């Protein structure tokens, strides 16, 4: 099982309460996800949310497509507990697994059985080789024309851009939580989950998707280190 700080109850609670809603352009990222799915795979019947957290992305897809069912996977038992509560209104339309997608994900769905696979701020915890393997597995599980969308934390091109990103993100956190900026900065820069980040650039990962065989692979939205990218089988 992948070992990260996300197994901790305090880390997951802090993220859901103080960080998730403060993510810059979070609504626009989800809207872009929905637009891409609607364009390339209208009316998906079977979807998967990898690193589901409390199930937010899966919830958006199930709301948009009332006939769809979902598979939710997260390696954090603390997050899975949140997902079971949050997704209770959809319990007849989803399966929730406490599972590790650093291993092969075929155990959660059959080949060519999924119309849409999404992930939100989760895959960057894997090594680059594990990312490539996961993207290959995703391609195998998608039905023809199926869509993969990753809403992700990616690497900046230079340390100076990374520094600017950190400053801007701290501003968003302080404003969203009505916190003193210095306090928000100290908490952000010393957060325990920072050590779990293994970031790759959006361009690099789009290149991996193209090499695997995804069509229309691109970065569809980007603000600093926050990107929406993916492709179509």
Structural category is alpha/beta
CATH superfamily: Vaccinia Virus protein VP39
Helix content: 40-55%
Order of helices and strands: HHEHEHEEHEHHHEE
The total of beta strands comes to 7
Beta-strand level of the residues, as a percent range?
Answer: 15-25%
Q: What is the residue-mean pLDDT, rounded to a whole number?
A: 88
Distance from first to last alpha carbon: 28 Å
How do the strands of the widest beta sheet line up side by side? 3-2-1-4-5-7-6
Q: Under the CATH scheme, which class?
A: Alpha Beta
Give Rg in angstroms.
17 Å
> Would you give the CATH topology?
Rossmann fold
Q: What key attributes describe this structure?
A:
alpha/beta; Rossmann fold; disordered N terminus; 233 residues; 8 helices; 22% strand; 7 strands; 42% helix
């Amino acid at each position: 099982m992948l070992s990260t700080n996300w197994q901790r109850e305090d880390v997951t609670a802090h993220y859901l309460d103080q960080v998730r809603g403060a993510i810059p352009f979070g609504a626009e990222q989800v809207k872009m996800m929905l637009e891409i799915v609607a364009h390339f795979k209208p009316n998906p019947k079977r979807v998967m949310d990898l690193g589901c957290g409390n199930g937010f992305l899966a919830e958006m897809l199930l709301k948009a497509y009332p006939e769809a069912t979902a598979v939710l996977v997260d390696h954090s038992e603390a997050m899975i507990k949140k997902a079971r509560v949050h997704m209770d209104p959809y319990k007849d339309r989803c399966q929730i697994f406490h599972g590790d997608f650093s291993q092969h994900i075929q155990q959660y769905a059959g080949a060519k059985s999924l119309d849409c696979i999404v992930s939100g701020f989760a895959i960057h915890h894997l090594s680059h080789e594990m990312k490539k393997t996961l993207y290959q597995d995703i391609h195998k599980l998608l039905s023809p024309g199926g869509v993969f969308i990753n809403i992700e934390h990616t690497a900046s091109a230079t340390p100076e851009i990374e520094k600017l990103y950190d400053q801007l993100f701290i501003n968003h956190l302080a404003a969203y939580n009505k916190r003193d900026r210095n306090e928000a900065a100290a908490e952000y820069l010393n957060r325990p989950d920072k050590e779990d980040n293994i970031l790759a650039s959006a361009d690099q990962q789009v290149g991996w998707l193209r090499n695997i065989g995804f069509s229309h692979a691109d970065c569809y939205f980007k603000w600093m280190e926050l990107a929406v990218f993916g492709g179509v089988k």
